[in-house]
Structure prediction request, 695 residues.
Amino acid sequence: MGRPEVLFPLFGALTALEGVGPKTAQILDGAGIEKPRDLLMTLPLSGIDRARKDSVRDVVAPAVATVEVTVGEHYPPRSRGRPYRVHVADAKTSFQLVFFHAQGAYLQKLLPTGQKRIVSGKVEIFDGIAQIVHPDHVLPVEEAADIPAFEPVYPLHAGISQKLMWKATRSALEKTSDLAEWIDPALKKREGWPDWREALTQAHTPTSAMFLSPDFPARRRLAYDELLAHQITLALARATVRRAKGTPSTGDRALRKKVLDALPYAPTNAQTRAIAEIAEDLGTALRMNRLLQGDVGSGKTLVALMALLIVVEAGGQGVMMAPTEILARQHLDGLQPLAESAGVVLEILTGRDKAATRREKLAALAAGDIHILVGTHAVFQKDVVFHDLRLAVIDEQHRFGVAQRMELGAKGRAVDVLVMTATPIPRSLALAQYGDMDVSVLDEKPPGRTPVQTALISTGRMDEVVEHLRGAVAEGRQAYWVCPLVEESEVVDMTAAEERFKQLRAALGEGVVGLVHGQMPPAEKDAAMARFVAGETKVLVATTVIEVGVNVPNASIMMIERAESFGLAQLHQLRGRVGRGAAASTCLLIYQAPLSESGRRRLEILRETEDGFRISEEDLAMRGAGDVIGTAQSGIPRFRIADLERQAGLMALAQSDARKLLHDDPTLENPRGQAARTLLWLMEQDKAIRLISVG
Prediction:
């Protein structure tokens, strides 16, 4: 099945459009506009009222006016660098048109003295005289209709004029045909949305500022189309995963009971709820594909262990994967005592195991003697064979997109998957990124964690900060010192960290301060971390490598240097590294004055709250979706029209609509299903199209 013929004109060459030659097409291509479809999905940002006025006096300067004038005298510049002026008169007053670096002959032709012309441009008052510098339009009266009463303003790229965008978009609109409707008729009626082609026409031909709002029905509809295509793709991926039959696992609760009895406190309601949701998924023959979202310290590990115990009770095996070896070891340390209390065999497999040890572990795994295996991606190498693997728990999602999730399923085993992420993500983004998964949220903190005091201090008081640190170290406390994030360069990050390390070592003494940064060989990094975990070093100077998951209960101070250079979510993650023990913890945000308005707002939000979900919502509102997750590595699609901050509700709507559409018509064969296929082609969701043809 290829692209539907009705879409051919939208995927043809840009040069087929009016006013677009090969050179312009090349410039547009550089701006990410490769074909007529991309042009139509580039909506105007704003508009200019060019409705005809009798006189420039009818607007309050500075403002745009469109008036009919009689051309008067020309005044060429008396010396170089001076402007060329043309006097003109409208129905009520006379004013000047001003041109810099202009060719006299060209202006004589454009504005012949004594003739009538329509001019449109920004009126300004200069020395008491009204003038328009470089009018946007100068036309003979009979061509006045060429100026739209309300002119759309497009996001521009160097070398492309508004006039060209206007012409090219009109020409692209003429090439579109009506498409069969893919939106649910009841939804469309309820929202008052126009048909697709009508919506495009309205969005590109605004007649007032109202047409430019993201809430304008035509714009909402076009945004919805984009989100719906994305959610159909995710729903197809979800259906493909679920179609692979899972193995139902129901346990007798014996092991879980032993672990819960060994815990010093009861699980939170949120933990109990998440465990129940997971148990229900594991008990069905459908494959689980669930995301466990929890803020720093909300007790995800316990939930993961309970899930793993369910499959062990049912006679299967589980695996827990972490992004790095340090984290894998940490999971091992956290889980081992609990697993032992239930008599469960837990092992770790890493790239560092000696050959003989590795052979022994692999044999035990294949025989089913190891119940739970902890490790990095290395646990999925060819020679690793499980006796009966049923559940994979993956820690720290971002480094793990839809493609890897599907690959995991393609291991030939219908393994249930539970992904854990410590990054609270606003709902609209969670749906964009994980729309193919079911989500459990941990939104309560377990008892026993102390709140972290957060304070702001400027770099000008660095000496006080170091003194404060000296006192804390003398009391036996441990601290992290996070160095600033330098734009995109690990090498510069490294130098900053090394400099700070030397200064602190000079101030606090040899052997007190350790250092880790991204450029170190992994073995050195592990060794430095291990010394800090063991309490041999008291202060760990680090670039952001420590943000993910390191657990040192005795560390109760977090210093973040140049905190304003970090994102909110990142600062929240870093702060979550302290406050893990019983000691009162502090987080010092060291900023460089003066702070920008948004920089100050970010740091103040952190001082006000420790609620990761609230922080992530603020972050989204302040920075926009692409930045919050770092689009490059996140798998969040770039939407051309949809705005995830302002149109968050549409995403949830699109998800339920897409799931319902596939539930009723899994192979998209009905009329609406066929229309949805056209939508997928229109939105270039080729992945989804492949999934239908496979399915």
